[in-house]
Specification:
Strand order of the largest sheet: 3-4-2-5-1-6-7-8
Helix content: 25-40%
CATH class: Alpha Beta
CATH superfamily: P-loop containing nucleotide triphosphate hydrolases
Bound molecules: adenosine-5'-diphosphate, magnesium ion
């Protein structure tokens, strides 16, 4: 089982959008996939039309008294399950802080799922605190969306420092999120990060198809597979598979690499 955390200090940069799309691409590639929504806003839960209610709340879920699979919901998609979040996840930080080894909690909870899933994707709430420490201890790769802005690379440096402190050697894959090639600053940032090996080759352009996900509750890679954002997510997923030595076991329904048209919505 490989665990991918979509994480970072900032909110509103495209973490949930990436987690939701990567999860469905993982399942389409044949991997038994679990998407764990760790954000009290429950945006990933909403995108998969799941009920945002966790019995007993975050403290019971993280308390470890019941196995994690008791909370798992099936989605409309083959091989894709979801662990939903609800507003009680606001207190995850304080719940973890009361534990003796807060950083080990997530890893321990996930261990029994090892035989049931090939890929787990963690959609993290923004922040670099105790939850993220626990996430880092549990995951094999951190995926970090970075919006093209002068301070963007600085925010990646901060994340990298946090990773190096808490989980030295853990691979980090950043990607430019919400890229708008019409903007000079965005083009400059793209040039700036070219050659920075922390960045994926894939970029995810700004696109209304991603914005519509919140309304339509269908991942953009399925709703608008030809859109350039969908192409970006497919390329990103291919890079994630590569980093994790994951072999796709099915020919995905959709071509993972080549765009069939070049539409930016
Ligand atoms: N590539 C994109 N193009 C356009 N809008 C996007 C894109 N990615 C994310 N968004 C929008 O930006 C907002 C924040 O995205 P979200 O994925 O929720 O960020 P985070 O999880 O980092 O807080 C949402 O309204 C989402 O629809
Ligand atoms: Mg989010």
């Amino acid at each position: 089982m490989r665990v991918v955390a979509v994480a970072g200090a900032k909110g509103g940069v495209g973490k949930t959008a990436a987690a939701v799309n990567l999860a469905v691409l993982s399942a389409a590639s044949g991997h038994r996939t679990l998407l764990w929504d760790l954000d009290p806003q429950g945006a990933a839960t909403h995108c998969y039309r799941a009920r945002a209610k966790v019995k007993g709340g975050a403290s019971r879920l993280l308390g470890g008294k019941r196995d994690l699979d008791a909370y798992v919901r099936h989605t409309d998609h083959d091989r894709l399950d979801l662990l939903p979040a609800d507003p009680s996840f606001r207190v995850v930080d304080s719940v973890l802080s009361t534990r003796r080894w807060p950083d080990r909690v997530l890893r321990k909870l996930l261990r029994p799922l090892d035989g049931a899933y090939d890929v787990v994707i963690l959609d993290c709430a923004p922040g670099l605190g105790v939850v993220t420490e626990s996430v880092l201890a549990a995951c094999d790769l951190v995926v970090a969306p970075i919006v093209p802005a002068p301070l963007a690379v600085r925010s990646l440096d901060q994340l990298q420092e946090f990773v190096s402190t808490h989980r030295p050697g853990l691979p980090l894959l950043a990607f430019l999120s919400m890229l708008d090639e019409r903007k000079v600053l965005h083009r400059q940032t793209r040039t700036q990060v070219r050659g920075d090996r922390r960045f994926a080759l894939a970029v995810v352009p700004v696109s209304s198809s991603v914005e519509r996900m919140g309304m339509e509750q269908v991942p953009a890679v399925l709703a608008s597979p030809n859109n350039l954002a969908a192409v970006g997510y497919r390329r990103l997923w291919a890079e994630v598979e590569d980093r994790l030595d994951l072999e796709p076991t099915r020919t995905p329904l959709i071509d993972l690499t080549s765009p069939r048209s070049a539409e930016v919505g």
